[in-house]
Amino acid sequence: MLTFLWKFTVFHPLFISCCLLNYVISEDSPDIPAITKYFNTKGRYEEVNLYLREDILAVNRSILQPPSAQCREIHLTAIIRHGTRYPTTKNIKDMLHFYNIVRHNASGEESWLREIQTHWTMWYTDDMDGRLVRKGQDDLKHLAVRLSKLFPSLVSEEKLRGGLIKFTTSSKHRCVNSTLSFKAGLTELWNITDKEFDHAANDALMRFFDKCTRFVLEVDNNPSAVVEVEKFQQGPEMRRVQEKIADRLRVPYSNITYVMTEAAFYLCAYEFAIKAVNSPWCQLFDEEDAKVVEYASDLREFWKRGYGHDINSRSSCILFHDAFSRLDKAASENQSGKQVTEAVTVQIGHADTLLPLLTLLGFFKDSDVLTSTNYATQANRSFRTSHMMPYAANLLLVLYDCGGAELRLQPLLNEKPVTFPGLTDSMPLYQDVKEHYKELLEGCDFETECELFRNPA
Ligand SMILES: *[C@@H]1O[C@H](CO)[C@@H](O)[C@H](O)[C@H]1NC(C)=O
Ligand SMILES: *[C@@H]1O[C@H](CO)[C@@H](O)[C@H](O)[C@H]1NC(C)=O
Ligand SMILES: *[C@@H]1O[C@H](CO)[C@@H](O)[C@H](O)[C@H]1NC(C)=O
Ligand SMILES: *[C@@H]1O[C@H](CO)[C@@H](O)[C@H](O)[C@H]1NC(C)=O
Ligand SMILES: *[C@@H]1O[C@H](CO)[C@@H](O)[C@H](O)[C@H]1NC(C)=O
Ligand SMILES: *[C@@H]1O[C@H](CO)[C@@H](O)[C@H](O)[C@H]1NC(C)=O
Ligand SMILES: *[C@@H]1O[C@H](CO)[C@@H](O)[C@H](O)[C@H]1NC(C)=O
Which residue, 96, 415, 410, is CA-closest to 263? Predict the structure, then answer.
């Protein structure tokens, strides 16, 4: 019925504007909020690969398209963000504050408002603090099964039992738990009950951002590094969103600050990510509002983890070298007639682990910097965390032997092939990739980059 309404409304813009606030109309399901594609790092993995909504274990091997039938995968490195998690304690505090405003101070007859005021309860508690949720365990189990279908010769029972699949994780609970879930996905798939598989916690590698003094002092703990973020939060686009929320709740404009707006957005996003429900909180935003809130969050990631400051990406040099030294090792083992000792490397970390690395590699770089004043012209930006960084986001580096000592490297982001920026082939020669990143391979030393008093080169 709602699906029908949506199709109908496409031809009747007036009808849309009268009803969007009262009915949740999504392109294909009333259970899915219309604004899910703007959830930034709080987004569901299924929303970046829509076919997974139908079949969570679906894969399509023909997307890999190696240049010749001879090509065989010889190594896979998978750098994966943890799965769906609870909000942090700070988010929960803000959500509670906003909930109290809506409960005590809002008025109106809309059904969504009555639902919040009479049926919804604040079920988030401080002890949840960012831990993995049940859905987050499934995110990683399902990803493990899909990777075994996508790369059956590498992510195989034989290789797992043979100790050729290595697991490394950030020590954060949600990452360790994600690692256990990934392994459980494989052991359950192959019904392995007689053996357990180790993992190693390594924060130097998976939480390099905490260990990089220069990043910590110049960016992470430095408000002047994120002035653009602050300005956008106080700017005209965001003010308009806040006023619209205040109008929908019939509360004074002064009650809806940026922090409250973000809390409202989180309530919609978390209820969907964790419980798969289209909660009444989502009715506080129309699509234009959601795009503004999405931009505010992208701005923060841009300045704290992305292209905003060089040290953001340079802090990931350690992870960059780790990946390439392993690729080199696999390449030379294969070329010298030995078995590749580490066929698969699974590394589980954070959005904060992946974003700097993707930036270092040059992915999602727009011609203009994201600022507080170019929201409109950045409408089609490629730096969009909603697409790049949902829960369980992953960067896969697949090394192929294509016969005759020809090695190729294919990058995939969230299981979709991508092209290294600056190269044209989606599965370039490994040698060409190394040539392309020559400067990083010869420099980009974590210790040097992260020293506080460093002379500019
Ligand atoms: C699989 O991917 C190929 C290549 O992108 C595409 O042509 C094909 O339609 C896909 N198949 C399915 C079932 O999605
Ligand atoms: C909001 O609700 C609280 C608690 O009921 C009340 O003390 C306060 O006066 C209300 N504020 C406004 C502006 O209505
Ligand atoms: C992983 O997280 C889930 C959900 O929070 C929890 O039930 C489970 O005990 C955790 N597993 C471990 C090993 O910590
Ligand atoms: C899994 O393995 C156990 C022990 O080998 C066996 O008892 C059980 O039937 C197996 N389950 C399935 C689903 O194959
Ligand atoms: C809401 O706004 C009113 C009027 O400006 C103010 O008195 C009240 O303290 C505000 N309440 C909150 C929770 O911000
Ligand atoms: C290198 O890998 C390819 C693909 O798996 C394999 O056919 C070849 O035998 C390997 N080379 C050696 C020397 O093991
Ligand atoms: C963004 O892309 C849409 C669709 O292609 C286009 O209509 C719009 O003009 C573009 N906006 C900007 C600011 O480039």
Answer: 96
Which pLDDT score is estimated for 291? 98
Alpha carbons 228 and 240: distance in angstroms, whole number = 18
Please tell me if the CB atom of residue 254 comes closer than 6 angstroms to any atom of ligand 5: yes
Give catalytic residues, as residue numbers. 82
List phi, psi (to 5°) of 399: -100, 130
Ordered structural domains, the chain, with CATH:
2-449 (3.40.50.1240)
Return the ligand 6 atom nearest residue 338 CA. 14
Least confident window among 25-34, 43-52, 144-153, 313-322: 25-34
Which residue bears the tokens 């043979």? 162
Which ligand has an atom closest to residue 253 CA?
A: 5
Interval 230-256: pLDDT, tens = 999 999 999 999 999 999 999 999 999
Kindly list the distances between the CA atom of residue 316 and the CA atoms of 132, 193, 230, 389, in Å, as whole numbers in the listed order: 24, 37, 25, 17
**376 Cα nearest atom in ligand 7:** 13
CA angle 96, 97, 98 (to 5 degrees): 90
Report the DSSP beta bridge partners of residue 131. none
Q: Name the closest ligand to CA 195.
A: 4
Q: Report yes or no: 148 and 190 within 8 Å, Cβ to Cβ.
A: no
The pTM for the full model equals: 0.91
Please determine, for residue 19, whether its predicted confidence score (pLDDT) is greater than 60.
Answer: no
Q: Phi and psi at residue 143, in whole multiples of 5°?
A: -60, -40
**pLDDT value at residue 145:** 98
- When mean pLDDT is compared across 25-29, 58-62, 440-444, the lowest value belongs to 25-29
Q: Which atom of ligand 3 is nearest to the CA of 181?
A: 1
CA of 177 to the centre of ligand 3 (A): 6
Cβ-based burial of 422 (10 A; exposed 0-12, middle 13-18, buried ≥19): exposed
Contacts of 427 (CB under 8 A, 6+ apart): 64, 65, 66, 67, 71, 400, 408, 409, 410, 417
The pLDDT, as a whole number, for residue 220 is 96
Handedness of CA 269, 366, 443, 445 (dihedral sign): negative
